[in-house]
């Protein structure tokens, strides 16, 4: 009979070792997923398994009380997880509590369920392995196998997504860790029932209820904390969007001005001229358009450089501003050497008179400022009455300007 029990006990030890290895492997896979590691550190996991199972054998030989047995296991698992996660304290605490709660809760559940099935007292499933009546091996095997499958479920992408969000908000994680610590000690207290030899069905039922309560408490705690973190993330996104909108509101006027102004001269550009002119015609505002084209700008750029050409442009603009009534008339840079002036409620004759005055002042300024060539421009003035399309109005002014330019060219010949 003794020859039979020796290989049988070895078989039980190896079977439980395989069951624990299954749990142990899935536990560290859970830790790796939570820590977002590139893969499982296989050597470390195998080393930790050897250390842990040797500790289990020693605890069994010394017949530690179940509370001391699981407490030592929790401390050992915490230290290994801390090393495995490179001292990530929050990840280590959460992982260790998760592994212990599910490992112990399922272990208690299996011991109590088998105690009910076999009609044995809970004391028959404690850590006194030297007793011939001890039936600990069966629920330990089942407990580690089921706990291993549970860790596989917790390692899935959906649950890991919940955990990553929780880990992002460490202040919310503190509440969850406190809850898990309470469940941890609650399960430890339930191990006291294995000290009694009373074969009480109510006590066994209470033990099953405690294990189920702990696992449900874990699930509810995760869900509740995740919901709080989701709301915190929404608030954070709202604040970020409000900040972006505020920046946009502050930037909008500057960007608008940048979009409608010419970078060299600071004048409104062609598109803005078309928009403003079209709006005036739609509102049936009486306007007179003056199209201006500089004379000899290309020649000045070619002979004396673009710096001199730019000085020419700025000088003409300065003079054209004198032709505009403040707060009423508008000056635009329509193209490279083309400018457009809008004169609301101004007769053509008055505008043409202003342009002639500007030409005289421009000629005098060219001599005073010692320009390399004469300063002048050609212009065409058109009354907007009778036009419904502003582009056509500008085109008519452009044609009139071109006619004046041709006359100047013929006169020089």
Low-confidence stretches: 1-6
Along the chain, the helix and strand elements come as HHHHHHHHHEHHEEHEH
**Can you give the helix content as a percent range?**
over 70%
Oligomer type: single chain
Strand order of the largest sheet: 2-3-1-4
* Total strands: 4
The overall pLDDT, averaged over residues, is: 87
Given the structure, what is the number of helices?
13
Separation of the first and last Cα atoms: 135 Å
Rg value: 45 Å
Q: Return the structural class.
A: alpha+beta
Estimate what percentage of residues fall within beta strands. Answer: 5-15%
Report on the biggest sheet: 4 strands, antiparallel
| Overall form | rod-shaped
Q: Explain this structure to me?
A:
The protein is of the alpha+beta class. The protein is 72% helix and 6% strand. A 4-stranded antiparallel β-sheet has the order 2-3-1-4, with helices on both faces. Mean pLDDT is 87; it is low at 1-6.
SSE map:
Layout: H1 2-35, H2 42-62, H3 66-84, H4 89-118, H5 137-154, H6 157-168, H7 170-190, H8 201-260, H9 270-282, E1 287-294, H10 297-304, H11 306-323, E2 330-333, E3 338-344, H12 348-368, E4 377-383, H13 390-412
Brief account:
72% of the residues lie in helices and 6% in strands. By secondary structure, the protein is α+β, with helices and mostly antiparallel strands. Strands 2-3-1-4 form a 4-stranded antiparallel sheet, sandwiched between helices.
